[in-house]
Every structure is written in structure tokens, then in C-alpha cells.
Amino acid sequence: MLHNEFGVTPVDETIEVSSHGQNISFEYIAEKNPEYLFVVDRGAIVGGESSGQQTVENDLVKGTQAFENGNIVYLDPVYWYITGGGITSTAGMIAEVEAAIQ
Predict the structure, then answer these.
(1) Domain residue ranges in the chain
(2) pTM across the whole model
């Protein structure tokens, strides 16, 4: 949705499109050096504990443009993981992406 609907350019054009994402490493993120990094903290929903920021913001990711420019965006997991597709959640998704890229 970020790429196709909102027009966010993927940092890797060869990555497989999947509704559940794809496993990558922090080394991969550092190598690709994204301008933006959008994060959905699944643990905040299914496990009850939010650990996304502590996990993502490690030494490798801290060397990316996204971190250095304050462009690691923690998306609302309710919108992006649980209720995606409804009118309210879609409006919330649009607002989050719009705020991030302005």
C-alpha cells in the first residue's frame, strides 16, 4: 500500500511484493540506506508489548538517512495490522503517511 497507493518509492525495486512482508536483516537496511523507514510494531498488538523502537534503532540503523533525518516512522499497528481497509483506518493511514513525508 505504501508503494502502490501512496507513491512511496521503494529503496529496493527487486524486493518481492507480499501482504505479510519479507524477512530482511539490519545489515540489509544499512546497505540500502533508506530515506524513510516505516515500521509496524506487531508485538504491540499480538504480544501486548511494544519493542519496535528498541529493536529497530540499533547501531546499524542509526547510520541510515532515515535515522539521521528523523524519518523512522512508527505506524499505528491498529490501522496497519488489525483494521486495515476500513474507512476510518484508511483515513488514519493516509494521515500518518502524509505527516511523515511532509
Answers:
(1) 26-101
(2) 0.85
